[in-house]
Amino acid sequence: MWATAPATFLPPAEAATQIPARRVIDVRPARQFSGEKPSRGAKRAGRLPGAFSFPLNDAFVGHHPPLLVDRERLRERLAAGGIRPDTAVLVYDGFGTHAALARVILRDLGFADVRAIAGGFAAWDAAGLPIETP
Questions:
Q1: Listing from the earlier edge strand, what are the strands of the sheet with 52-53?
Q2: Cis peptide bond N-terminal to 85, omega within 30
Q3: Is pLDDT above 70 for 7?
């Protein structure tokens, strides 16, 4: 059985209160981040306020099997967005599954305080919480 730290996956309303103190990372594809294409299950298109786009696919190379990109390269990409291992992070995707994987990757990169939004953007949208649109 996998053990999870308390409050690792936050319901959208609780996550919304933490945005001012955390950097928000959106791991959805760029077309969803930009609002060009809505996330499956969401009525609105856009992103969480202040989110940084880091599509999860950018963390991998190859397909069979996909391999994690060099860790230093990932750290540099995140640092370019002002996100360093000592940064408190809130990560989300469309439904929550890819955010869980992103959380594991960020923890492997040395990020100590990483939380994910339970239910992802779809749950955020369903709760009627604010989004940014381009």
A1: 9-10, 114-117, 89-92, 23-26, 52-53
A2: no
A3: no
Dihedral sign, Cα of residue 38, residue 42, residue 46, residue 48: negative
Q: How confident is the model at residue 78 (pLDDT cuts 50, 70, 90)?
A: very high
54, 134, 63: which is closest to 98 by C-alpha?
Answer: 54
101 touches 56 (CB < 8 A) = yes
Cα dihedral 73, 78, 84, 90 in deg (nearest 10): -130
Question: How many helices (DSSP H) and strands (DSSP E) are in the chain?
Answer: 5, 7
Predicted confidence (pLDDT) at residue 1 exceeds the cutoff of 50 = no
Question: What is the pTM for the complete model shown?
Answer: 0.91
Residue (of 65, 60, 64) closest to 27 by Cα position: 60
DSSP 98-113: HHHHHHHHHHHTT-S-
Q: Which two tokens stand for residue 2?
A: 């996998």
CB 56 within 8 A of CB 27: yes
Give me the residues paired with residue 52 across strands.
25
Rounded to an integer, the average pLDDT of 70-99 is 94
